[in-house]
Amino acid sequence: MSKEYWWASESFWRKNAIWITAGSFLVLIFLTFDTVSQITAGGKRVPGYAVINHRISYEFDDTRNFQVPVIGVEEPLFGQKLTEEEAQALVTRGKLTTQAKNCMNCHTLLGNGAYYAPDLTKAWLDPSWGTKEVREELMVEFLMNPQDRLHNGLGRRMPNLGITEDEARATVAFLKWMASIDTNGFPANFVSIDQEN
Amino acid sequence: MTALGKIDSSNLNGGQKLAVKYFSVAVVLFGAQVLFGLLAGLQYLNPDFLFGILDFSVNRMVHINAMIVWLLFGFLGSVYWLLEDESGIPVVGLKLGNLAFWVLTLAVVVVVLVYLLVQVGAGSHASIWLINEGREYIEAPRWADIGIVVCVLVFFYNVAATFTKGRFTGVGGVLVLDLVALAGIYLAGMWFTPNISIDQHWWWWVIHLWVEATWEVLVGCLMAYGLMKTLGVRRKIVETWLYIEVALMFGSGILGLGHHYFWIGTPEYWFTIGGFFSALEPIPLVAMVVHAVFDAGHHKIRSTNHPALAWIIAQAFGNFFGAGVWGFMHTLPQINLYTHGTQWTASHGHFAFFGAYVTMVIAFFYIAIQKWRGNVWMSGGLVGAWKWKWALALLHIGMLTMTMALLTAGYEQSQIERAIEGSSWAGYFAAQGHHWFIQGMKWRQIGGWIFAAGFVLLVWDLMTIGRRETQPAKSLAE
Fold it and tell me: What CATH number has the domain bearing residue A135?
């Protein structure tokens, strides 16, 4: 056996393994505190739930060089202005509905999930809803009875998941709120539904 | 010891008897994964297939959950397999370990039945506690989460206490620390929040820090043991490599978590951190390839168990290409902006889980069956060796076909849906209807059938290999 080099020794790498792991983990913890504070609802990057009382658009920002959500004029969802608490309760119900109905195993949300159905990150802003006047009601109707509405040439349909009207409205609130999250320009090159009066 | 070639549990130590139970359930769940993957794949080609009965969401959920759970069963089994060998003493809480096995298995059966029969619930907390949490990979309802944590704690107790009472090898030390992280991280995914950014932030702690950190280290431990067992590599060599792998895996993988934080609302600094550290993630996987191939060459591939060694070498390459190269291909944010949420991810996911984890668990199946049959000959000239070779070949051909088909579809989606059509729903459907995409889905299905054939052959082989052997296993000293 030839001479053992320190850089190839077991103890050198054991110590390295411990220090590198501990160091990386500490950095992660530090960054986690900062990240969580920035993505808490009402924080810098994720608006409070009452944002659903406003128009939300997705516009190009020259400084950041990608599209960002812009909170605009007052445009309450279903014409009803809500307090922060009421909005939070509604979005919470919507989020629970998306989980209980297993949306994520066909769709992606913020790009994560399955790839059998379109991404829902900007569902609220998608041009396929036609005009902003009919959008909310169309979304509710679709969620409640999607199984007969063929909307693509592939034959892919959404099954009827037994979504009630209240759940559908809450889901629309959740989707509108999700569209206001600053996702660093994802999805890119997105062309929104026309929301100008 | 009974006759060579006959399955007899008296050939096994206590931990190994428990291990083969875990392995048996793992094989069944592996079959479920393949079956439900085939069903979901067929629905891409014929959307009316089982529509309203077993929708895509259900099939896909069972497909990915069966995978997570069978691999977990495979890992638990593998650790129980090596525990008494490594620690030098019997497992301290074997009865408790057995009880945890039955509880976990029963819980899995109930969860799958609820997935298949109940499927969805009302938009309430009761649904995510009882039916389905609706979060990819960790869909198991909350009651099952708690059950999983309890069973994993029992497992952890057994591993830690057995090593503590016996001897702590390098493999044992790494394993125990890794299991602390593995169990602790699961807790990060066990609570509800309406805020999807916060939700996905913690959800990635579970998914990424399991799959790209703690699981990788776990298979590093399994590889170390596997190389010692099949080739007789010296402990000092495998343990030094193991420490190198741990340093590099955790050094790149922990902050590599940042590549999941590009688009979910998290701050822009993750572009730099995630991009940089995840670009380093393939390096430990190169180390594993060098290590496994060098050791195999050094020992002139004179192994005691050819199929197990073949699967260990397959793991080294599969991990490097599937997890390392395929991950690196789309990990930088400039590229990921267009590939995130497309079939690119599916291509990477299939290849990586197979290459990194399925391969290693199969290697342990072969190590186990050899001893279960009284430590029979499983080296050159093995009777019926065509079966394991063809199973290995078919599983790889099937997986590579699926991987390449999904990658083609992913490229097409990135180009048409994302770059040209601006990520709208109309763009999504334009890309899904494009003939390149459809072609990709057809080839994926063909790959799936080939893989399924490989699975059937693998099971047949595991049930029969060594049955007609009359010589004892090759001695490592030869």
Answer: 1.10.760.10
